Each structure stands twice: as C-alpha cells, then as structure tokens.
Amino acid sequence: MRTRQAIAGSALFFIAAPGVVAGLLPWLLTDRYRLPWSTQPGLVPVGWVLIGVAAALLLHAFARFALEWWVPRTGTERTSGP
Fold first, then answer.
1. 10-residue block means of pLDDT along the chain (82 residues)?
2. Which helix (H) or strand (E) holds 50?
3. Residue closest to 68 by CA, chosen among 81, 56, 80
4. Which segments cross the bilayer (predicted)?
5. Domain locations along the chain
6. How many CB atoms lie within 10 A of CB 82?
7. Terminus-to-terminus CA distance in the chain, angstroms?
8. How many whole angstroms separate alpha carbon 13 and alpha carbon 66?
9. Given this model, what pLDDT does residue 46 score?
10. Neighbours of 10 (CB within 10 A)
11. What's residue 50's pLDDT?
12. What letter would DSSP give residue 40?
C-alpha cells in the first residue's frame, strides 16, 4: 500500500505544482483569460495537438520514473551509479 500512496502523492504533486506555477498564475497575472487564444486561423488546433503530444511524453516519463525507480522492499530510490 505504501507504493500506491507514494505514486498517488507524486501524481497529485505532478499535476498541482506545475499546473499552478506554470499555468494558472501567469494566465491570471497577464489577463490572458480576457483575450482570444489566437487571431490566426488554424493555430489553436495545432497548439492543442502539440500540447497533447508533449503531455503524453511527460506522463510516460513520469510513469516510468514512478514505477521503475521505486524499490518496494526498502522504500528508497535506486542509485544510478555502480
């Protein structure tokens, strides 16, 4: 159960911290929520595709780190050295 709790806590932090610091705060501070996303046709869908691809890669890397680098018996992370 500790492994699941650790992964759940890491996932919560993974979503909350960058979402607030890199997304919500700059968006609120710059008043971008009042402006349209783009004046150029077709740029918004391309941006959403790029965001989706980047999010998929980031989630894959996070899942590999959380599942492969965790040693359940000792509760410590593996070292990368010899």
1. 72 82 83 79 91 88 74 57 56
2. helix 43-68
3. 80
4. 46-67
5. 2-77
6. 3
7. 29
8. 12
9. 93
10. 14
11. 93
12. S
Token duo for residue 37: 């996303």
Any idea which residue has 């609120």 for tokens? 28
In the chain, DSSP finds a helix count (H) and a strand count (E) of 3, 2
Residue 12, CB-side half-sphere exposure with 13 Å CA sphere: 6
The enclosing H or E element of 65 equals: helix 43-68
Backbone angles phi, psi at 48, to 5 degrees: -65, -35
Q: CA distances (Å), 59 to each of 14, 33, 45, 67, in order?
A: 9, 26, 21, 12
Instruction: Give the CA-trace dihedral at 10, 13, 15, 20, to 10 degrees.
Output: -170
Beta carbons within 8 Å of 44's beta carbon, 6+ residues apart: 37, 38
Ranges of beta strands (E only) in the chain are 70-71, 76-77
Tell me what pLDDT residue 43 has. 92
